[in-house]
């Protein structure tokens, strides 16, 4: 017997089955644990470079830029 024929010959049973599926979906949706602002912990590394008496440009070119290049070469680390 063709499965389509079963649903065509029994429209009331088909409607009840669809209603049961719809209600099950609505109940499952209501039970989903959702949060508007979920807490996500992103792995980060923060490096502070200090060079007493130097200007920000000097620190940027002599300390920070070489560190960024070295960190960029580490496997598995994205900038």
Overall description:
This protein has 79 residues and is mainly alpha-helical. The protein is built from three helices and no strands. The model has no long low-confidence stretch (mean pLDDT 87).
Keywords:
79 residues; mainly alpha; 2 domains; 56% helix
Name the overall outline: rod-shaped
Count every beta strand, where a strand is a DSSP E run of 2 or more residues: 0
> What fraction of residues sit in β-strands?
under 5%
Number of H- or I-type helical stretches:
3
Distance between the terminal alpha carbons, to the nearest Å? 61 Å
Helical percentage: 55-70%
Whole-number radius of gyration? Answer: 31 Å
The domain tally reads: 2
Largest sheet: none
Secondary-structure element pattern, one letter each: HHH
Mean of all residue-level pLDDT scores:
87
**Contiguous uncertain segments of 5+ residues:** none
Structural class: mainly alpha
What's this model, at a glance?
The protein is mostly helical. It contains three helices and no strands.
């Amino acid at each position: 017997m063709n499965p389509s024929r079963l649903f065509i010959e029994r429209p009331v049973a088909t409607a009840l089955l669809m209603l049961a599926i719809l209600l099950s979906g609505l109940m499952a949706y209501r039970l989903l644990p959702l949060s508007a602002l979920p807490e996500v912990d992103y792995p980060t590394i923060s490096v502070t470079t200090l060079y007493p008496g130097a200007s920000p440009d000097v620190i940027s070119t002599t300390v920070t830029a070489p560190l960024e290049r070295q960190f960029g070469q580490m496997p598995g680390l994205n900038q």
